[in-house]
Amino acid sequence: EVQLVESGGGLVQPGGSLRLSCAASGFTFSSYWMSWVRQAPGKGLEWVANIKQDGSEKYYVDSVKGRFTISRDNAKNSLYLQMNSLRAEDTALYYCARVGVTGTTWDYWGQGTLVTVSS
Amino acid sequence: DIQMTQSPSSLSASVGDRIIITCRASQSISSSLNWYQQKPGKAPNLLIYAASSLQSGVPLRFSGSGSGTDFTLTISSLQPEDFATYYCQQSYSVPGTFGQGTKVEIK
Question: Nearest 5°: CA angle at A101, between A34 and B101?
Fold first, then answer.
């Protein structure tokens, strides 16, 4: 059974940093692109970042470029999101999601970890 | 970025009703359109990909159609477990933008 379990969320002050983790199991992690997708409280979904199977390609939504870094450790079946210079508008539930084999969908999602940016 | 607009934003329906949700893209996206269902407190769940292909395990009462800029999600006979929020998402170009969501509520 595919499982994605996020951790690392919490309350952080504006300008602060946080590192999210996603532990993957039930599939060959190194064979899939992975993503972070976020959802502000009561709002819709927003893709944040993608990373290729070997970590050689990374893509970001414009609003987080230069502040967030996606990475992965295939030996540990883990995905990460380093978030720096956090802003109030980054407050959201952050989901780890697997990109499906077609490369165009997210076919499995974790339950999310909540990041709150507030003073 | 490609903008995705769903309508309606919410609807009330009864069990057994047929409902249609529409999604319009700000430019042609061919058939690169996916639909997700999200229940309260849960992660999104992929229903339809490539505009009309049913994801494995998804009931046959769900169907999708369209191409270019206009797409629809149809639930042929609404069941109690279908009350949720539905999102369309374009996979034609990065970023893979979502619609604002359509909340389906019980009448």
Answer: 70
- The per-residue pLDDT for range A76-114, each reduced to its tens digit, is 999 999 999 999 999 999 999 999 988 889 999 999 999
Identify the burial level of A49 via C-beta atoms within 10 angstroms of its C-beta, where 0-12 means exposed, 13-18 middle and 19 or more buried.
Answer: buried
Q: What angle do CA B38, A81, A60 make, to 5 degrees?
A: 80
B10 closest CA partner among B91, B98, B84: B84
pLDDT category at B107 given cuts 50, 70, 90 is confident
**How far, rounded to the nearest angstrom, does the alpha carbon of residue A72 sit from its chain's CA centroid?**
10
pLDDT of residue A4: 98
CB-closest option in A44, A102, A111 to B43: A111
The DSSP output letter for B94 is: S
Name the token pair of B26. 């700000």
- C-beta neighbour count of A89 within 10 angstroms: 10
Using the beta-carbon criterion (under 8 Å), do B43 and A47 form an inter-chain contact? no
Chain A residues whose C-beta is within 8 A of a chain B C-beta are 44-47, 50, 59, 61-62, 95, 100, 102, 104-107, 109-112
- Alpha-carbon span B72 to B66, nearest angstrom: 6
